[in-house]
Design goal:
Length: 105
């Protein structure tokens, strides 16, 4: 798992037109670390493994799912005020793992 978090892990089957940048595993890591309120990927490891086992139609659908959850959390905290769709469309909205291309990147 750690190797996936440090390197790109895009699926060859992923549509090239996905509106959400980054790798699925990085979105999962950011989601789990946010949910557990930690920046330690080791502490979030069980969550990451469990989330990676969830079935999605493709990696793009998974990335939309995790970004939407993170957008909803940012809106609930008051960090954003523009709504879920605007947040999803914002290419700058991403967690540090996605932004850095991996943990500690």
């Amino acid at each position: 798992m750690a190797a996936l978090l440090h390197a790109g892990a895009s699926s060859a089957a992923e549509p090239s037109a996905c509106r959400i940048a980054g790798d699925k595993v990085h979105w999962v890591a950011d989601y789990c670390m946010a949910r557990l309120q930690t920046d330690d990927e080791i502490a979030a490891g069980a969550c990451i493994n469990a989330e990676l086992d969830k079935a999605f139609s493709n990696d793009c659908a998974a990335k939309v799912h995790y970004k939407k959850i993170l957008c909803e959390a940012a809106l609930a905290r008051g960090d954003r005020k523009d709504g879920v769709e605007a947040c999803l469309a914002d290419p700058a909205f991403a967690g540090s793992t996605v932004r850095n291309g991996g943990v500690g990147g």
